[in-house]
Structure formats: structure tokens, C-alpha cells
């Protein structure tokens, strides 16, 4: 079962989301909270797999909550976070993804799309496709000249750089294995090595890293 905590200041919205998720055979809502401070306490007590987190709440908003979860004083193994917002290309949501969230959803998403997003994030993917992440993060970096590659990036082998670029462009492990004529387990090993060398948590952060540092050839 995918264990989920809902953090949103609108009780009616939480109730509707809970009904939709609890109807899924592989999901269970294990806690709710009406603000970020309460949410952190609920998360600590329930240790969910996924947190659905509203961006705009009293006491502690979504961005502050993400920073608390993924900052140096946060839990050792934080849950994956999907932030909820009312409009696309939300700058606060982009900042939350940079801080550790795995993507964002519009609050008017259908129950089927919401459930699919929860499953995708639980499996280690982002909610947004890499090209959408590129739009989100490209707004504030494209005007500036590309920075030199970070020192950690220069430690990657040629093979790892190839895997990095394909993963950052949204190719799955299976697709990368087919393109590179290697096994899927080899791809997983390379991806793990890349994440470790770059100090990244998951493939979502890899995509953010690639766009922030302008590392994708041809864009």
C-alpha cells in the first residue's frame, strides 16, 4: 500500500481527495493536516510514502514545509512530496521542486490523474514531464550565459554523462537500455552512480540539476 498524508487548509478539498485515494486498491490516506506545522507533526507520526501538500496555507506554507522536510534538520528519510497549486508554472512550486518536492499538480486534477501521479512519484518519477520542468526552470536561467559545469559533473565518466543526458530528457531505464545496447540493470547502476556523484536524491532532482546548470546539449 502507498501511504499518503494530505496537508491542505480546506477541509472539504481534503475530504474529496481522501475519498478518491482511499478508493484505490493500492493507496491509503494515513493522516491529514490543515497547515504545514501540523503537517510536519502528522508526517513524523505516520511516516507516509507520499505527502500531498498545498502551497498556500496559514502558519507554515507549502514551501516552508518542503524546506523543513528536506533541510539539514529534516527527517533522515523524508517522504516524496507532491505540491498542490491552483495555476500552472507557479514560481513557488518551482522553488519547492528545487528544494526537494517531486513535482506539482493543479488542484483541479481529475481523481484518475491524481492517482496516476501518486503512483509515478512513488516509483521515483516526477509528476511533470522533463519538457514541462524545462519550461518551469528555464524562465529564470535562459537569459544568462551557461555557467561552467559544476566540479562534481566533471567527475562523471563519458558513459555516465550519456546516461545523465538521456535520463534528464525523460527516457526511462528501459528506453535508455535499448538506445545504448546495455541491460536495464546496467542502466540502473549507472543512474545510481550519477546520483551519488552529484549528490542528488532522485531522477526529479537530476532533471532540475540539468536545467539549472544548462547541461543538456542543444537546449
Give a verbal description of the structure.
With 219 residues, the protein is an alpha/beta fold. It has two domains: 2-128, Rossmann fold (3-Layer(aba) Sandwich), CATH 3.40.50; 153-212, Arc Repressor Mutant, subunit A. It is 48% helix and 12% strand. It has ten helices and five strands, in the order E-H-E-H-E-H-E-H-E-H-H-H-H-H-H. The chain has helices at residues 11-22, 36-46, 62-70, 91-99, 111-122, 130-138, 158-168, 173-180, 184-198, 203-212, and strands at residues 2-7, 27-33, 50-54, 80-85, 104-106. Helix 6 (130-138) crosses helix 10 (203-212) and helix 7 (158-168) packs across helix 10.
Features:
alpha/beta, Rossmann fold, Arc Repressor Mutant, subunit A, 2 domains, 12% strand, globular
**Assigned CATH superfamily of the largest domain:** Response regulator
Q: What overall form do the CA principal axes indicate?
A: globular
Task: Provide the helix percentage.
Answer: 40-55%
What do we call the CATH topology of the largest domain?
Rossmann fold
Strand order of the largest sheet: 2-1-3-4-5
The succession of helices and strands, N to C, reads: EHEHEHEHEHHHHHH
Number of helices: 10
For the secondary structure, the number of strands is: 5
Mean pLDDT, all residues: 87
Q: What's the Cα radius of gyration? A: 18 Å
| Text of the CATH class of the largest domain | Alpha Beta
Counted up, domains total 2
Catalogue the unreliable spans. Answer: none
The profile of the biggest β sheet is: 5 strands, parallel
